[in-house]
Design brief:
CATH architecture of the largest domain: Alpha-Beta Barrel
Number of helices: 14
Number of domains: 2
Number of strands: 10
CATH superfamily of the largest domain: Aldolase class I
Strand content: 5-15%
CATH topology of the largest domain: TIM Barrel
Largest sheet: 8 strands, parallel
């Protein structure tokens, strides 16, 4: 992991089962400048029962007579051959491929691909055998924490750490799994509370509309940002409506990179860009009336005005009561003999 914010563009299942759309999404993500594009790897029959119903946000996008998760997911699977093809295409476009596994067979397959890290979704954080299997690979972990309490997080961390992953190789993503997430439910301050409580790096997996909250998360110190995107929000499918369109994804990346630069360092200092403004913006001690040589400088014959290339007004008390060593005209910068300062 580098020091810059890792940006994961979540393609998820927004390819709608089409490799043409999946590759188009790679193009969009690469053009936007993200670090990773992430898909989802699963075998439908291993992921859900035949009776499992869709979530409410999924039902809104489904046909009225088709509310089962199984029938929905079958249309969205990527084959192993699809994965290899997408990895090659990502390499050609200069973007890293990533995917989340949702069943044990998919975990084994992704493990063979030598990806940079595991991305654990919120729904698997209570899946003990899943967490154990991932931890036993000793690879770094990025884990979303939607629908979680601190106790849930602690238990999951214990499984991962006790089975072979160092705490320094774990990043927890604050998350809310409602699509879209109401701003009132984001609770972004919880991100750094997680950092302090568990001693890990943190990030944010966003499901709000727009790009405001992920940008704010970077300003608060997020190490990773994950955000869903789509080619077109009007496409049929469970996640399109709560996803960014291509121009929005690009704006988010640009804004995050600008915020990273703007965060700077912890020291308050005069920058080179603003140093040139000191003379124009600050003030100096000047004569408010004509002052003759030998007169005392007083509150009545001195004032402060721009420019700031003379004696600083912070020396006011040191100047008052000193003797003018020469004549000064109105608005002239006051000077003292060296021994008087």
């Amino acid at each position: 992991m580098s020091n810059k914010t890792i940006i994961i563009a979540e393609a998820g299942v927004n390819h709608n089962g089409s490799m043409k759309m999946a590759k188009a999404m790679v193009d969009v993500a690469a053009d936007a400048g993200v670090d990773y594009i992430k898909f989802q790897t699963f075998k439908s029959e291993l992921l859900v029962t035949s009776q499992a119903q869709q979530a409410d946000y999924q039902k809104k996008q489904a046909k009225e007579d088709d509310n089962s998760q199984l029938s929905m997911l079958r249309k969205l699977e990527l084959s192993e051959e699809n994965h290899y093809e997408l990895i090659d295409y990502c390499n050609a476009r200069g973007i890293k491929f990533l995917s989340t596994a949702f069943d044990f067979k998919s975990l084994d397959f992704l493990s063979s691909l030598n990806l940079d890290f595991w991305k654990i979704p919120s729904g698997e954080i209570t899946n003990y055998p899943y967490l154990r299997k991932i931890a036993q690979t000793h690879m770094p972990v990025v884990m979303s924490t939607g629908m979680c309490t601190n106790d849930d997080i602690e238990r999951a961390l214990n499984v991962i750490v006790n089975n072979g992953v160092s705490i320094k190789d774990i990043i927890l993503l604050h998350c809310n799994t409602q699509y879209p997430t109401p701003y009132s439910d984001v609770n972004l301050r919880a991100m750094n509370a997680i950092k302090e409580r568990f001693g890990v790096k943190v990030g944010y997996s966003d499901h709000t509309e727009g790009i405001d909250v992920p940008i704010a998360a970077v300003a608060l110190g997020a190490s990773v940002i994950e955000k869903h995107f789509t080619l077109d929000r009007t496409l049929p499918g469970p996640d399109h409506k709560a996803s960014l369109e291509p121009n929005e994804l690009k704006r988010m990346v640009e804004a995050i990179r600008n915020v990273e630069i703007a965060l700077g360092c912890v020291n308050k200092q005069v920058t080179s860009s603003e140093a040139v403004n000191i003379v124009a913006a600050r003030k100096s001690i000047v004569a408010s009336t004509k002052i003759k040589q030998g007169e005392l400088f007083t509150e009545d014959n001195l004032t402060v005005k721009r420019p700031g290339n003379g004696l600083s007004p912070m020396l006011w008390n040191e100047v008052i009561g000193k003797i003018a060593y020469r004549d000064f005209s109105v608005d002239e910068l006051i000077e003292l003999k060296n021994q008087d300062v």
